[in-house]
Amino acid sequence: MRILIVDDHPLMQEALSLVIQTFAPKTRLVVAEDLQAATATIKRSGEFDLALLDLGLPNCTGLEALTTLRTRFPDQAVVVVSGADDKETVLAALEAGAMGFIPKKYPRSILIGALRLVLEGGIYIPPHAVQLPEGSSKDVKEPPRPPREHPAQEAEMTPRQLETLGYLARGLSNKEIARRLGGLSESTVKSHVTGVLRAFHVDTRTQAIIKAQELGIRFPPSSG
């Protein structure tokens, strides 16, 4: 497994590296200090199994780094690891294609659990951003529950819809999902997406990703 850490702070680079090596010691870790270095690295060596991205990179504003990576490398799985973790930022990152969001301020134990979940194919979204009403307590909680044995059946989704959900969690567009599903038409993919939303009783892709987190659904690693 190969993971790209995109962060300009040496201490955070080291912290993330050490955390990952505690439970995935055979992982090959590569560090990029800014967006330019990250894009050059992916272009040179191919897409990584996962990219951990800081939103506060030099010469970037807001979600610029995330949207650039998602546009240039649509198959690259990206999880944001950021110091800015307000609800609006978290949801905007998910909408822009992040398949998870881990706040930097979390204690080591929570960070380990969140990274482990992501690397095992789960989705981590800070509970305060999606589960608690405005003005309520925002205490850090443990990562989501263990994966269900039969999540597709529990959500009343077909295997194809569950596969589509996995690509939605990776931020892929309908066109990109169609290609990954063997050249299906975009209208067919749209039908599958609609089925996913209906199964979860939600209206948007972001809400579907949040629901997948709540159910503990895991996704297999990308095949490339």
Major sheet summary line: 5 strands, parallel
Structurally, the number of domains stands at 2
User: Unreliable segments (pLDDT under 50, ≥5 consecutive)?
Assistant: 132-153
Question: Which structural class is indicated by helix and strand composition?
Answer: alpha/beta
Which strand order do you get reading across the main beta sheet? 2-1-3-4-5
Secondary-structure arrangement, i.e. CATH architecture of the largest domain: 3-Layer(aba) Sandwich
Quick structural summary:
The protein is of the alpha/beta class and 224 residues long. The protein is built from eleven helices and five strands; from the N terminus they run βαβαβαβαβααααααα. The protein folds into two domains: 2-130, Rossmann fold, CATH 3.40.50.2300; 151-215, Arc Repressor Mutant, subunit A (Orthogonal Bundle).
Task: Explain this structure.
There is one protein chain. It is built from eleven helices and five strands, in the order βαβαβαβαβααααααα. With 224 residues, it is α/β, with parallel strands linked by helices. The protein has two domains: 2-130, 3-Layer(aba) Sandwich (Rossmann fold), CATH 3.40.50; 151-215, Arc Repressor Mutant, subunit A (Orthogonal Bundle). A five-stranded parallel β-sheet has the order 2-1-3-4-5, with helices on both faces. Helix 10 (186-200) packs across helix 11 (205-215). Mean pLDDT is 84; it is low at 132-153.
